[in-house]
Amino acid sequence: MSYEIIGNILKTSEFKVNFEHNIEKVILHNDIFIVLLNGINERGELRKDVVNNIYGLSSEGETIWRIEDPKNINSEIPLNTPETFTDIIEKSSGNFLAIARWKTRYIFDYKNGSMNYKTIGNMLKTASFEARFDLDVKEVILYNNTYIVLIGTNNMSESLENNIYGVNIHGEIIWRIQDPRVAYQNNNLDSVFVGVAQNSDGVFTARTFITAEYIFDYRTGVLLENKPVHFW
Question: Could you tell me where the DSSP H helices lie in 77-191?
Fold first, then answer.
């Protein structure tokens, strides 16, 4: 479905919706329009009158949700301080990120706007726990009460090995992904992971820096299948 943005108007062949503020960005996913309103003023400052500025619209143009107030999972935000979002991102893992001040990333459900957790630096935080890792959190997938967490660094020379973890709903690390060199008895295999994803069938894959993609068990971190990556 095609759409057009004209200032504060989102227009399709089926509907035209006016918002109170100009539209900054739209993501269309599974017939839901995820709409970010502009929260930055002419001086590049956050606008205090634009808060929780992400909406979900149906294919008929009806507002079906407004993003959950991040104060529900982030006690560091003073009660009288509004949160303004500056970007929305759809990740290849299927996650949707709402970016706020200081590049805090909130992960939200595109179907209802509810927030599951946030990441900032090396911290994963939910309403019930806070977990810290040795390196920055790069990706998180929540599935059946297990958080699958990829950590990493932009400096690939820094030591990284088997850098995917499983965390339970109490914030406890319950597994670390199996070392490919051990699983396949080959010391030449790469153990530095740069991506983690879940497909529509619920299959989880982890991709290494150079050599392979692995299917793994989200409950244990055990590698189930080696899928070599070919470069043509």
Answer: 180-183
Three-point CA angle 21, 22, 26, nearest 5°: 115
Neighbours of 119 (CB within 10 A): 22
Residue type, 228: P
Residues 212 and 204: their CA atoms lie apart, in Å, by 14
CATH number for region 121-232 = 2.40.10.480
Residue 232, pLDDT score: 38
Give the start-to-end residue ranges of the domains of the chain: 1-116, 121-232
On whether the CB atoms of residues 179 and 224 are closer than 8 A, the answer is no
Pairing of strands 146-152, 164-167: antiparallel
List, for residues 104-125, the tens digit of each pLDDT value: 888 899 999 998 788 888 999 9
Over residues 143-162, the mean pLDDT reads: 82
Residue length, the chain?
A: 232
The class level of CATH for 1-116 reads mainly beta
Tokens 């935000």 found at: 77
Angle at 50 between CA 48 and CA 53, to 5 degrees: 140
